[in-house]
Design brief:
Mean pLDDT: 80
Oligomer: single chain
Structural class: alpha+beta
Radius of gyration: 36 Å
Low-confidence stretches: none
Strand content: 15-25%
Largest sheet: 3 strands, antiparallel
Number of helices: 2
Order of helices and strands: EEHHEEE
């Protein structure tokens, strides 16, 4: 039998060609003028549907991006609130232990930890002394006055400002 007639029509919307639709038939002269007009109408309708689907996809992507940015802003706002609270705590007239306790509670809102400690370090003599600690009591994090930080959780050539991981 084979192909005796073929018709290809652009699918467009707002003057933009989005796709092409093709028809074939084993009958010669199958695509009369009235059939061609009907298929053009169907093609135009498909173009509108495709354009709407494209717009919906773009809208869904935009909404996902907006939600992502909202989440980022909420996280940033939470961090800024904690920073403001930490500033208030540090500048408050409370005693040092109260300041450290409140400071620890604020930091815990944005950073998960088992224990937080503040240590006095004497670099010249290589000594470490606990000034404050809060959280789970970990034997390896205990210090006594005048304890050498060599042999502790700090590396032998530890340098303040470099994280110990």
């Amino acid at each position: 039998m084979g192909i005796k007639a073929a018709l290809s029509l652009p699918i467009s919307a707002d003057g933009e060609i989005l796709a092409v639709i093709s028809f074939t038939s084993g009958n010669k002269g199958h695509f009369s003028q009235s059939r061609t007009q009907l298929l053009q109408f169907i093609g135009n309708t498909l173009g509108i549907l495709m354009q709407n689907a494209k717009l919906q996809d773009r809208q869904a992507q935009d909404m996902a991006e907006i939600k992502n940015r909202e989440r980022e802003l909420r996280n940033l706002l939470t961090e800024r609130k904690v920073e403001v609270n930490i500033g208030r705590i540090i500048s408050s007239p409370l005693n040092a232990t109260d300041v450290y306790e409140r400071f620890s509670a604020e930091v815990r809102k944005i950073i998960d930890f088992d224990r937080i400690g503040l240590y006095n370090i004497d670099l010249e003599r290589g000594l470490i002394e606990t000034r404050f600690h809060h959280g789970e009591d970990l034997p390896e994090s205990r210090t006594a006055p005048g304890l050498s930080y060599r042999g502790t959780f700090l590396p032998p050539h530890w340098n303040p400002g470099i994280p110990v991981c």
